[in-house]
Amino acid sequence: MAAAETDRDAPSALCSEFLNFSSKDTAAKWLQGSNLALEVYQHLACYVPKIYCLGPNLNPQNEDLLSQLLLQGPLEWYLCGEEPSVGLAKLEQNNQPSQLCGYVFKVGEPAYICRECAADHTCVLCMQCFLGSVHKEHRYRMTASVGAGVCDCGDTEAWKKGPYCQKHEPSSCDSSQKDPLANMSAEMIARTYNIFSIILKYAVDMLTWDKEDELPEGLEPLVRGDMYYCMLFNDEVHTYEQVIYTLQKAVNCTQKEAVSFATTVDRDGRKSVRFGDFQFCEQAKSVIVTKPLRVQVMHSSVVAHQCFSLRALNWLCQIIRYSGLALSAALCSEEDPVSGGSAERSRRAALHRTHCGEYHQSHRPLPFSCLQNYERLQSDYVKDDHDREFSITEISLQIFTVPSLARMLITEENLMTTIIRTFVDHLRHRDLQGRFQFESYTSQQAFKFRRVQNLIGDLKYVLMSRPTEWTDQLREKYLEGFETFLELLKCIQGMEPVVRQVGQHIEMEQEWEAAFALQIKLTHIISMMQEWCASDEHVLIEAYRKCLNALTHCHSGYTDGEQPITLSMSGHSVDTIRYCVSQEKVSIHLPVSRLLAGLHALLSKTEVAYRFPELLPLSELSPPMLIEHPLRCLILCAQIYYYHDVKCRVEMFDKDLIMLQAGASMMDPNHFLMIMLSRFELFHIFSSADLRKRYGRESANKDVVQQNNTLIEEMLHLIIMIVGERFTAGVGQVEDSDEIQREIVHQLCIRPMAHSELVKALPENVNKETGMERVIDAVALFKKPGVTGRGLYKLRPECAKMFSLYFRHYTRADQSKVLHLVGMGLVEEQQHLLSSSEENSFNFTLKISRPSEAPANSPSILALLETLQKAPHLEVHKDMIRWILKTVASIKTTRECSASAPPSDSSGHTQEEVVRDKEKAERKRKAEMARLRREKIMAQMSEMQKHFINKNKELFQQNLEDLEPSTSSTLEHSESLPLCSPSWSESALVCVGPRRWRAGASERRQVVTCILCQEEQEIKADAKAMVLAAFIQRSTVMSKNRRRPLHDPDKYDPLFMHPDLSFGTHTGSCGHIMHSHCWQRYFEAVQAKEQRRQQRLRVHTSYDVENGEFLCPLCDSEQPDLSQWLSVTSHQTKALLAAHRKTKSSSAEGVDDAEAVREPPPPECFRLDRTLVNPYSSTIKEMLTTFGTATYKVGLKVHPNEQDPRVPIMCWGSCAYTIQSIERLLFDEEKPLFGSLPCRQDDCLSSLTRFGAACWTVSSPDSVQNHFIRLLAALVPDPQVENTPCILDVDMFHLLVSLVLSHPAVLSLDSSGLSSDSAQLHFLHLVTVAHVVQILLTSVPEEVRMEQESGGAEREEEEERVYMLYSTLRMHLGGGLREVSSGWHLWHCVKAGILPYLRAAALFFHYLNGAPAPPELHAVGAGEWEALCGYLCLPSNLLQLYHHNHHVMEPLLQGWCSHPGMLQALHSSPSLIRFPRESNHLIDLPCDYSALINQACPKSGGDKSRVPTLCLVCGSMLCSQSYCCQTELEGEDVGACTAHTFACGAGVGIFLSQVLFLAGKTKGCFYAPPYLDDYGETDQGLRRGNPLHLCQERYRKIQKLWRQHSITEEIGHAQEANQTLVGIDWQHL
After folding, report:
1. C-alpha R_g of the chain
2. For the domain with range 2-93+183-335, which CATH number is right: 3.30.1390.10, 3.30.70.3270, 2.60.40.770, 3.40.33.10?
3. Closest by CA position to 129, among listed 157, 110, 106
4. What is the mean pLDDT of residues 89-110?
5. Mean pLDDT across the stretch 668-672?
6. Which CATH architecture has domain 110-174?
7. Closest Cα to residue 766, out of 1037, 526, 1111?
8. Which of 549, 574, 879, 1171 is most exposed, with the fewest beta carbons within 10 Å of its own?
9. Could you tell me the pTM of the whole model?
């Protein structure tokens, strides 16, 4: 209650005080006072608690308004000394804008890096600056910002050329920059310094304030209230679900409120969850703390001042924008930077933005302040748990990457030493030798270590730009920092040693993760240290000396119990130490040794070793010491993955190899080999005089032999690499580009590779560049991608000579791939030999049989393979080697035979021909045996059939007799209607009406095979049911009104489809045919299997328990005119209506006898009591019910109920919607109406149409008859039928299908011989006229600009008749239609508008009656209109349907126009559907992907754009994987995408971040997005950053999947192929 009273009373209590307040007077008072800070603080203490945080429900608009009036107004008056609007305008007029952009990026916004001009990869441009710069024409990289970075446009040090965009380009008058304060008066400068210092101190104090119930001195209010907030704070530990559950228990809120709280906490860093007195809030805190979450009970005045402090910082930034550099100079000279302490996310972000803004205006003051407080700031960050983007330490990226600033800080503030020592001080976990120890790290220490690693990244920023000129002071400070860096490396040298595992393969251990993570962080730093050293000879020499001393110190300190020994062999001896790598521990972390190896190679590369040998400590070098630890590591690390990984190998494996090469070059070769034998533990094998005897004795132990062979192989491989691998700058006379080129060649020797694969296989430098683009064209050819797949680089043939099987970066798996390459070459040669009898130029066997070119006399590949065939250690590859040798022999034999035997000589058979003949004879013998077996089986089956016929002779004879009359009657009927006989010319084919084409007995017969039991069966009405597997889904693909509110499924009447097709039911099929009982057994087995699973991972793709539907293919004569037929049908419907009313009222009391007397008698031969005989077998009826119920359930989203009268309506609607969907797809793809559908769609439409014609037989006849009466009343108005829709609210094709398919229920009661064919034709005529009227009422353009085409007498007749009909409509509507002067324009609208309807009707009657289509409809051409009209038995001038039956149509026309909803529908132009309806397409996407990633969800708020996702159907921007857009759907919380699929796509959605397909709540998959780079590859998350452009072909493929209703099918295939998709909670997306 207290909270409510405070909210209500606060405005009235403060109203008079606010009205009497004067900002001018307050500012004048401050000017006259002696203590400005005290005055301002008193003012804030008085008014801030009265404006902010007055209750549980905040009102930001009122708070901002009062803040501007009472708080910011006095500050602006004081600052300007006059009316703020005038003073700020003057400042803006004198503004000296900064040439630095300084735009602060938000999370997810695009940032651009020019790969040609950027000084390093941290130099970025915002989108506006990039589009206005020269860099958009260069090679650039596009990334999504992680937040807090700034645009470097205007920074001349950030760009090699083009530092300015068009907006920030300095003008000629700006050549001499003046003092930014020159345009300001001394008084204003003083006021600015005063007010900025006070407000900035106030904001910093409050944002870092950690006391809950006290305020800083001077801010205590005179009257202290007793209201508190229970404030929940964000952390990086607890999940959304944990926070939501805790809040529901603690503050008794709903789940929706708890989700809102949790979302705000995650976005802003904190949220008040309770407001009231102290005890009330403390009670909630006690519950929340037990979970445990971070929560505080804070006094309302503290919260109020913290809210205003954010506003104050924003005000400062806003004021600075008026004057550019002038006021920013005052701001930059004030406070030291603050880390934010325990402040939450929103306060940290505000401080961060302020620091970034002030730094970008003046580089000088802030960096020194940051460096002076560097250790404290980093300590605060390490102790905290918030992301680095919300820490002031992130600003080091902006400071240390400025080259001049970084070098100034190195020389003046000893920056390198400060960073390294701060980093080392945080890693205090050491062993006895002082080395880092990570093995026993607790989870908390591991978390802290991950944060500590970010510190060393600052050193990378400092070293990013190598100096071109050195000063003595820079050399001194750099070498001092280098020495400190060596101290860090000494703590890593030899840490965490491990023992080699014998007999098993070890790639990675969990406890190695921390050490390798540190190694990866240091990789680029070590490389950059060497680059700095290489740029100055003096620095290189001194660094080499210091590094050698550090390595000597490490070896002297870490003896590990090593004992000296002397090795002797063949007259040679060498002193070394005893060390067994297989038993002793070996460390893979040797950064000091590797740094020395790198510096040693640089001495050779820069020729310093040759020009200044006297300055180098060459005498101190001990080659055995240099090679000892790298050699141990190379022996150990054949098993360790990370050691050879591309991220680590440059500063690990490669440097170890260089050190061995350097040591070997300074040693006696024999001594080097003896030490290698000792370390591989092979010395005892090769040193003995009776070597063969000992080896033979040991060969009894196969394990020992295998182990020795493995060690020998590894040793020889290492020797080959030491001697042969010289493609390294400083080792061989090569450049860096040569090394990259050779790397690419060996990658492409394995297989053609995509651009991204090559980039991953090459090491990146600190700027994330591999150098591949410079050399790739010289060694490879690029094959562009097609619609699917990606572009591939293929090795140029002339570069194959660079291949070496022992390339140092080849793994064993890569080396084994060489065998596969040899095999592929042999297979290709075989194919060439078999395909052509002429001499073939491709002779791969000759190439692998030749000796290698270098070194001289080296064996050929074939000789090496023959040698390796007997090698015991290559057991895995023996089969492959044998096959290669066998294939080579076969190819050689074939070539010899073809070369020696003359073409005409066929008498002499070579050995190869004999073998071939034997194989052919064997195949013939087997084929003959199979034929005899088949004949025997068929004979047995024939005997069984004869036996069955003899046994059931009477039954068989009866069936033959029954068959003969039906056959003869069919023949008689065909003779009486010669125009309908099969011999009728194709040009007169008709699909509807009495003259329609009819199939003969042989043509009607259809035999199909069950895919489950493989039994053949003829399709008959009384036979076993044959079914198709089908999938039913709700669809909005053709919707013209996605905003139509969802209907109540229990009350919705789906009889009439609206022309907007807001949603429909689509049926698709895979085309597989089965017996119904075969399917039932299989389906029951699948169900049982699903039920046995403890946890159901997914539903079967083909047999979904809820949505697996199956179709049944069913089989299926005169002449009254339209008026007679309408009269008869009208009498029948009236009789049915009367009977239905009588049935309903029979149970009611007091039936009126007079009313019964007035009931009209039924027509003759129309018996209401006639018993209907269902012609279908029981299995067919069962399947009809199954499919009908499934369509009803899916289409209306209700529980199954086969008795519901809406079941047949949904079946007819699904038939009509599916046909319309396929017709539109064929039209848009410019395919012919017939002959272009795949078999499965053809079978689906045929079965679906015939099912629709038969489904009434398993429904209630009364309900179907009632549906027919209501449907007919829409065309033939009947006052006895209520709620008849206006014809503008009815889709005419749906109406046609429903009328035709429901009419048999009425016709079955008639015994007069009326033809169903005539009824179908009359329905078509009526609905066609109604659709013509519909088009004339809705689709005539307001202003027609088309030029009329000249036509003959027939055209004039068409125009005259359509004009007369339009005039009649205007007359009936009383001038409600606009006047049109031209009949030609009207006829053009009618023809264009009705064409989709005619095409769909042709498909419908084709599949319903089985009439083949004329040839004109099997091709796309100009004669389609006439062919359609002829096929549908319609006149080509459709207006004849109206004028020839004018006496019948005129009353109908009047009835349609007089409908109460007609005028209302015509006047609601936005919702009026015009014909032809345009086909729906996915939204248009921009060509450049960066135009998309700059968008954000409007609900996300704050600095984060979250995970923006674009609906490709309607263009809505949503959040994926975020709670800010989560909503409730059917009682369950779902993500924004899932909820949107039901509103926009009836449960199916397509979204673009990466393309996401969703179907319902539980199914989804990811699909390749349509945006590709220049290499034909996608780039999820912009990891590579190549510019992405829209691929129209791929986007059309996605659109085709959507329009074909194949999204759900695609999801099923994806989940079938990738089981991980099943475990994703799709409903949360």
Report:
1. 44
2. 3.30.1390.10
3. 110
4. 75
5. 90
6. Ribbon (2.10)
7. 526
8. 1171
9. 0.73
